[in-house]
Amino acid sequence: MKNGQIITAIDIGTTKICVIIAIINSEGKLEVRGIGTSKSSGLLNGVAIDIMKASRAINEAISEAETNAEVKAKNIHIGIAGEHIRSQNTLGRISLTSGDNPSEITREDIENVINNAKNNVKIQQGNEKLDIIHAIPQYYSIDDQEGIINPLKMSGFNLSAYIHIVMADMNSIRNITKCVEICGYKVEDLFLEPIASSYAVLNEVETELGSIIIDIGGGTTDIAVFYKGSIRYSAVLPLGGTNITQDLAIGLHTTPQNAEDIKTDVGNTISESVPEDDMIEVLGIAGREASEKKLRYVSEIIEARMREILESAYELLNENNNLKMITAGITLTGGASLLKNLDYLAEEIFNMSAKIGYPDLSKLSGSTERLSSPRFATSVGILYQAYANLEDETFISSKPRKDPFSNFFQKIIDYFKEYI
Predict the structure, then answer these.
(1) Nearest residue to 221 (alpha-carbon basis) of 420, 378, 379
(2) Are 43 and 13 in contact, with CB atoms under 8 Å apart?
(3) Is 144:159 a contact under the CB 8 Å cutoff?
(4) Global pTM?
(5) 353, 364, 355, 368: which is closest to 386 by C-alpha?
(6) Closest CA to 271 of 241, 307, 320
(7) What is the set of domains in the chain, with CATH numbers?
(8) Which of 331, 330, 333, 265 is nearest to 299 (CA)?
(9) What is the pLDDT of residues 117-147, one digit of tens each?
(10) Are strands 230-237 and 155-156 parallel, antiparallel or unpaired?
(11) CA distance 326 to 334
């Protein structure tokens, strides 16, 4: 990897666009040069509904980042989410030999078994209009030997691969990519947002022992489960912080902007913790008089919607996973994770420990203070994931990695990064 190489991460959300331009400095570290943000437009729940409006919002954020960085955005990686995302675990299997002696496994064999898993998913009914954006190996088996991390140069008759596949609607991907292209840039790669976020907020111990990440954005809530150093499950809920804002605007008879300000400034997800006599002034709509509302009433609205989001996440996770294997607990991130007492509400619903996921900025240099918020977990994670895919031995072998695939990458990143 060359010093001076530029990496650009773009988090395209329903409520905000965030762009980070970083450069690989002489020490092989990511140096943040420019950060840009803009209010999102033309997007709904991770999907473009007005490409021209979305393009203008993206261009605004890129322009701000470029002005601060004094360099052009290059090597662009974007995060995606939305109801159109589908994921599943699948099995790939190939025969290594037709003779009586075992065969030594090559890189081509590993690629073939991963491709076999991808093909098995692509031919399933309903997947015809979906593109595979991630095919992440969890582990391998050779004949009857399970739990192999790197099968290269081992011998056997049959090779199997357990793969986590993430797919997205072709049109949704193309439309999001088109938004960036209209701004005059080329998209290098796409990452599922909860996977990207995990690079910034989870460490190796958490992904090894079992951890859940719940990334509550504006339009969607993205979920991922990690265990034994690899991803085991991912899903997207079509609910997020915007739903809370809408509920407040209706319940308080105020504007969405004022509802957003109230949510951000005094929002609390456990209404019983709010004193009964605390009041708040609520602005009226279109010049109407302001009114006073009980702060507990505000919190009751927030709590009701947040309970729905977390309980929906719990139902999905409990249905598709053995939650007893989750030892490290839950990490909550995204803008809505800053709501007061959300970690305690999650602990009540999931009956396990929870924390708010602030991005680890220790692998960055430069002006990073602005990034020290769960709101930037995805964009920081995109930056880390893009960096990790660039074959930098210094980055890989430095202090313990804070990404969810550290064990996997350290052993086989040189051989098939394109499938990560």
Answers:
(1) 378
(2) yes
(3) no
(4) 0.86
(5) 364
(6) 307
(7) 86-167 (3.30.1490.110), 204-358 (3.30.420.40)
(8) 265
(9) 999 999 999 899 999 999 999 999 999 899 8
(10) unpaired
(11) 21
